[in-house]
């Protein structure tokens, strides 16, 4: 690679907190190139990217940008210099509209007043680039799902000119169509000479768009080379320091009678007349496009949202239960591991011990007073069981990597020992090694006779771990597939079927009913 194409050089960069999280990393970023950055959660990827993006000050080393020393004191300073970053933690204001979030620092004005017309026009152009044409620019960001919020964040960073763009797990919540749109934008940026850093654990994506790959393990750079020189298996071994098998053996399971039955569940046009059964010992997957109603269905079962109609039965034998709130759901033995672990699943400033004990107060307290020894012991049990990388039970959850934060959430519910567990995007933003840890956990829970429901945007993940997969499309179940009979094409066709039916009805001038 010619040095005249070098945009940034990172030399001997390291970062120390209580321990060293990044040590002696040296990399070059070149114009018109995608550098894939990968490694297990906690390997140092986010720390390195935040140093480049101005959010973290390095303890050691130096950086050069466009031939000059580079040491941004803030994210704003980095962005002003042309270095931008799309983070896993979305940098959006939920109480403002999509348009206002896109142009917050450069709102169009006319005669001193904000030009709402111009703002909407500018927003529509920016949104069209990432496939958000169907969303009203005046929609509040807080009213959007996580996947659509992710696309808004990406659109915000594609506005204007930049020389370095860092994308941290940008496709974790995107559909295949949205991924294609994003990759089209990446190709355009490469042609403009932008240097891109693409952080992901999805090796098939990296092989598709990356030119070089850098692998971090335990805070150190173990590889920086042409990506075409490595197979997927070799990259996995570099990341985790060990080989991972391609097949998952869940051992002997007894898939029994239904333990969860949902009948006629409905909420407006989002979830429409959904019925399903999940058996004890079964891993039941739910697939579908973003906006298909998957998360909304989980929230209805858990009582987080109020259903317009529908019944829920649980237990063996099944019995009808009334769930008006999450308190009712937990009392009946239903757990929800939410897709938004930071916003809904964790108290980030609090310790691991405090977070794990949240759903288990009876086990760690007496007369309303928490027994610190019991709380710590409970946390240590889950730290060991979930293989959480931490300095101890007292460490604040916000200091953990995304994958380890997710393990804390799951550990809380494992301690509760619920019979029905709803997992909404459980491996989002989690590295390959941690994914296999969680898959192994699924197998252990299934062997114990638990009923598992797994929502995932990664269809291949569902095909790898599930016994059956139901597909939601435009709020309806459009197909349920058995293992060994499904195909990827059939599942994808079902994912689009509901929208095609709806679009045909609208084209014919018929209003589609709220439920079928």
TrEMBL record:
CDD domains (alphabetical): ABC_Carb_Monos_I, ABC_Carb_Monos_II
GO MF, any single term: ATP binding
Keyword Translocase: yes
Record InterPro entries: AAA+_ATPase (IPR003593), ABC_carbohydrate_import_ATPase (IPR050107), ABC_transporter-like_ATP-bd (IPR003439), ABC_transporter-like_CS (IPR017871), P-loop_NTPase (IPR027417)
Residues of the ABC transporter domain: 5-243, 252-499
SUPFAM superfamilies associated with the record: P-loop containing nucleoside triphosphate hydrolases (SSF52540)
Keyword Ribosomal protein: no
Domain of life assignment: Bacteria
Keywords, in A-Z order: ATP-binding, Cell membrane, Membrane, Nucleotide-binding, Repeat, Sugar transport, Translocase, Transport
Alphabetical list of Gene3D superfamilies matching this protein: P-loop containing nucleotide triphosphate hydrolases
Protein name (database record): Sugar ABC transporter ATP-binding protein
Source organism per UniProt: Silvimonas amylolytica
Gene behind the chain: rbsA
